[in-house]
Amino acid sequence: MAFRGAAGYSAVPDTIISIPSDSNPKQTYDGSPAPAAATASAATWETLRKQARQLENETEAKLVQYSKLGTGAGGGAGGSGSGGGPSGYGRGASPTFDHASTASANGAELELEHLLAKLTSVVNYMAQSLDTSAPTNPSMMHMLQRHRDILYDYTKEFKKTKGNLKAARDHAELLGSVRDDISMYKSGMNQQDLLLDERGRIDGSHRMADEVLQAAYSTRHELNEQRGVLYGAQGRVTGVLARFPLVNDLVSRINTRKQRDSLIMAGVISVCVCLLLWYMLR
Questions:
Q1: Which of 31, 34, 156, 185 could be 26's S-S partner, Cβ–Cβ 3.0 to 4.6 Å?
Q2: Greater confidence, 101 or 222?
């Protein structure tokens, strides 16, 4: 979001102007509020508006500082302009979060939460003041809505920056633990450890080869079983044919008839060829 400008600010006291609780203000004969009550309401509204603007300036400045803490500590990640997070790290970047930067970020976070809570209270008091005043002023309604929008934008930006900063911190802690593990592993490794690792790799290769051979033997055994099943099926078919001689007789007759038909066709073709040759040579 685009901040509204003023970076300088002064401390705002925690005391907030309370709204008068008199629900029956003095009225004139025509039914309109008395001038004294209207003046007091206007003064209360103006005071609350000044407090709201002052708190908005402080919150804006603190948000800028909080965003700079996030981008500076995270090595360029988590900024509000880049939609940061762990993915915002460049290749080769090494984010670091020391104790001082973490403490500064936590302090700024607490201050922002306190400022946002105070600003929320002031905006609520402004809404109550506007509800008790009659008649309703459109410009005041517009101003109240503007303060509410600003409060919503600041709260949204604070949550976004807080989430990005937390993600960057977690990413940095993860990278740091990985680097520590790698350095410890490298420092504690000697020549004997290297030889033991190499022996472990060779044993692993042997185990893999044994598993491949076992799988091949299993496949061969299954193929042999399938071949036995096929031979058994063939034997059962042969046995069925042997049990039914009528089937064999029928098959043999069919074969004999086919051979006879073939011989007849061959004789007819031979006679036709001979007649044709005799007619051509005559």
A1: 34
A2: 222
Question: How many other β-carbons are positioned within 10 Å of the β-carbon of residue 225?
Answer: 10
Please report how the helices 35-73 and 138-187 are oriented relative to each other, as an axis angle in degrees rounded to 10.
20
**How high is the pLDDT of residue 274?**
92
Bond prior to 35 in cis (omega within 30° of 0):
no
Question: Quick one: pLDDT at residue 262?
Answer: 93
- Rounded to the nearest 5°, which phi and psi values hold at 84? -60, -145
Phi, psi of 33 (to 5 degrees): -60, 155
Asked if 172 contacts 97 with a C-beta cutoff of 8 angstroms, the reply is yes
Considering only the C-alpha atoms of the chain, give the largest distance between any 2 of them, rounded to a whole number of Å: 153
DSSP string for residues in 182-236: HHHHHHT--HHHHHHHHHHHHHHHHHHHHHHHHHHHHHHHHHHHHHHHHHHHHHH
What pTM value is reported for the model?
Answer: 0.44
